[in-house]
Write a structure and sequence with these properties.
This protein is mainly α. Helix content is about 60%, strand content about 5%. Strands 1-2 form a two-stranded antiparallel sheet. The longest helix has 25 residues. The radius of gyration is 22 Å and the shape is elongated.
Length: about 120
């Protein structure tokens, strides 16, 4: 039996029901790791920033990204578009115009607490 026959390499990524891809058994997303890597962080620096991650998993995710760059970039783009769509809906339902003044007005209606 050869060494390569005994190695079972698994990419440490899992997809949630909402479609978000996470690294290992953590809440850290594929998007986070790829973003850090594209901004020049090494695997070691990424693990330092996110200590819940395993160094070997980060290397595996970076390798997966480099081998599947087009597919991962497509996923990242679709995630960004979905996030922007959700943000637009939230901003439409809960506009931030005059937010400070609305909060001050609401505060003025609260009963005064004597200290």
């Amino acid at each position: 039996m050869n060494l390569l026959d005994s190695i079972n390499t698994v990419i440490p990524l899992s997809s949630e029901l909402d479609g978000v891809i996470r690294v290992g058994n953590t809440r850290v997303t594929l998007e986070t790791v790829v973003h850090q890597f594209k901004n020049g962080s090494t695997a070691e620096e990424i693990v330092y920033q996110y200590p819940v991650l395993d160094l070997a998993d980060v290397y595996a995710v970076i390798s997966f990204y480099l081998k599947n760059q087009t597919a991962v970039e497509d996923y990242l783009l679709s995630s960004k578009v979905a996030a922007e769509r959700i943000q637009a809906i939230v901003e439409q339902q809960f506009p931030a115009t005059n937010l400070r003044q609305r909060l001050l007005d609401r505060q003025a209606l609260l009963p005064k607490i004597n200290a």
